[in-house]
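A quick aside before the break. I want you to see a complete sequence-to-structure record at least once, exactly as it would be stored in a machine-readable document. Don't worry about memorizing anything.
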Amino acid sequence: MDIILADNQDITRAGLMYVCNPMIGSGAQTAEDKTELLEMLKKQPEAVVVLDYTLFDINDADELEILNERFPKAWWVLFCVDLTCDFVRRIISVCPRVSVLLKESPLAEISECINYALHSRRYICQRMTELLLAPTSARAEEEVKLTPTETEILKDIALGMTTKEIAEKRFSSFHTVNTHRKNIFRKLGVNNVHEATKYALRAGLVDSAEYYI
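That is the input. The structure line, written in tokens, reads:
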């Protein structure tokens, strides 16, 4: 079975290659964007797709569900830094061929998850399982409180700036801005730029006229 790596981070792809190649006896393939991923799946409809949902250009959960329906024999491994519990519950309830793996997972768990996918078996990493099983009463809803820095970065994200561009604008490191980005997504309960942008527009952080320029 083929493996397609849909992850925009070079270092992550290199690490996944190290893990995946011995399992399939040949090199895993990489998709640079959604268009390339779709073309690969047309040729390899039964592939295992290791997807960074939060950084790859998949707009929302609806689009992921459509891809699952369009390629029903493919297996999806969502390999992300952070995912909300509501999103994971929705996806695993409607998409039976989806596994969930956080990037903080140890190497043994990453290998096990991908091996499960190659054998068409679902896998939910330990950390996400713990989050899903945590009592809802333990997490009372709180008003979203972004720091001034996070608010400014959210505005830049909503206006289409990349993490690298924001770092250059703020004279900060890529790592620092990426950490802010993860914290923003976690606080807002969103999983990608599209959802964060919708929040920024609703909250009035970005003027709609400015957004559509």
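Two observations worth writing down. The first helix runs from residue 10 to 24. Confidence is low (pLDDT under 50) at residues 137-142. We'll return to this after the break.
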